[in-house]
Amino acid sequence: MGKKFSEYWRNYLTYDELTKALQEMCQEHTDKTELISIGKSLQGRELWTVEVTNKKTGLAKNKPALWIDGNTHSGEVTGSAVCIRTLGYLLEEYGKDPMITEIVDNKVIYILPRVNPDGAEIFLTQPYHSTAAGILNPAFVDGEGHYEEDVDGDGKITYMRIPDENGEWKISIKDPRLMLKRTPDDKEGQFYRVMREGKFLKYKPGKQITMAPSRFLGGTNRNYPAYWAPGGLPLGGAGAFPLQEVEARAIADFWGNHSNLSGLHTFHTHSGLILRESTVHPDSWFIEQELKQDLEIYKYIAKIGEEVTGYPSLSVYEEFTFEDDRPYRHGCSLSFFYEHLGAFNYSIELWELEYHLGFGHFRERGGVNFNLSKLSEDDQIKELKWIDDHYPEGFIDWHYVDHPQLGKIEVGGVNTKFTRRNPPPGDWLEKECDKALPFALKHASLLPLIRINDLKSTKVADGVYKVEAQIINTGWLPTNVTEIAVRIKRASPVIAEIKLSEGAELVIGHEKINIGHLDGHSSKIIAPRVVGGEIIDKTRSNVEWVVKTDKSQEVTVEIRCSRAGTDFKKLLLN
């Protein structure tokens, strides 16, 4: 893979650095890119989005489109790097890789590297871990309890261990950097309370410790219209009403104005997973709703993702939620883009430190029940060893600090930003990008694409001609893409139109013919139409007109479909 812009995806970029990277990459490829802003964050940062397509082969609006974004959650900055890497790969491999060349020539890809620029900026430039959308919470100042803060001023927030005879933690004998949970048999020795490095609002010695209100609010996590519910549910980001968050609204508006979009890949961290619909229903719901074909295609494309990334694919509802978590899966983007916009969409949870520590992929290590901090002492030491070998900055040695409220304590431990939550910058980040990017591009190669396969005329009388065209969907997906898109009237049919010059008259047929939808090659694999033991090919359709003209003249046949592109051919009648 090309390395020309590699510094942009080997490092975590601030907003200004990200802007510079996108500008530079697009300026060098003006024939294939357009850098646009689809809106602004609350703090005025542009939501930079790159439109990628070969401008010489037609307008972007007339080509089938796929959307790619990253960094929906402020701290999941690996997603931005994958988006930038994907952009670089499209530009550098055009003309070299046949699949990439076909995508850039015949389709359009929209890439928004940073959905949450305000929260990400705080995450990257300040020590805080939980930054939401960077909106200051007015309830924070008047609240009370523990909140994260950089106590020792080193620019990082790790952990505090506070001497306490009733504490639940003790120091490991095998590695004094590791804190272990105290067992019922532990009666002697030094014990500690352990908590995130921070301070306390309205602190009173001896008072029971509670959690302060979040310092930052916002985020698009639960702010989409599908199954939206109010109240700032435990997973956060619901907002006061659907699409209140300006970033979510900007994305929804863009999709509303671009009917050629029918697929989405959104990059998050972490777990090493490919997540698909549904967030609120079991797979049986697709069958009950007579959307079985959508479910099968969802799974089929996800399998392609498994092959190229090594990550397992699964339903959010069935395998990525605890039982008591399921009622809170409201307002998720996945359900919005499928049920409201009729698009196949995937959330890729990048990075899995657990796998690199030898605990296997998601299912192998126990799914949602796996927790690094609950492993055996020896297994937890594996993490410290990995950090030592690959990212020494990821562990801060315990050191004494005069805490303004607690007195003399120790601060240190794992800095989780670029160990557990994101890969370390450099080689590890680049490897994650290279692993993840092919999946979205494989998906783009499957989009429907209509073409006029054959156009001919037959003279039936003096000055009278029958014009025949065969229309074919050359893509893998049907022209409607999803079954639900037809149901919600999001997918427009294929239209064939004949355009006549002055002096020509249409004798039989309508200028515009509604062909309906055409199957893609997927129909022969997923849901073949069988009649009398033979598979019926519904990937193509024939249309005809009868035209009368008193002279030799040219006619144009044009076909179009919002999700499958456009094509036209000219024919001389003589």
Structure in words:
With 574 residues, the protein is α+β, with helices and mostly antiparallel strands. The chain folds into 3 domains: 6-123 and 217-351 and 437-445, Aminopeptidase; 138-213 and 370-418, no CATH class; 450-573, Immunoglobulins (Immunoglobulin-like), CATH 2.60.40.10. Helices cover 24% and strands 29% of the residues. It has an 8-stranded mixed sheet with strand order 1-2-4-3-13-16-14-15, with helices on both faces. The protein has a 4-stranded antiparallel sheet with strand order 10-7-18-17. Strands 19-20-26-22 form a 4-stranded antiparallel sheet, with no helix packed on it. The mean pLDDT is 93.
Oligomerization: single chain
Average pLDDT value?
Answer: 93
- Distance between the first and last residues' Cα: 52 Å
Number of helices: 14
Helix content: 10-25%
In the CATH classification, which architecture of the largest domain applies? 3-Layer(aba) Sandwich
Strands ordered across the widest β-sheet: 1-2-4-3-13-16-14-15
Instruction: Give the overall form.
Output: elongated
Q: Structural class per helix/strand content? A: alpha+beta
CATH C-level class of the largest domain:
Alpha Beta
Proportion of β residues? Answer: 25-35%
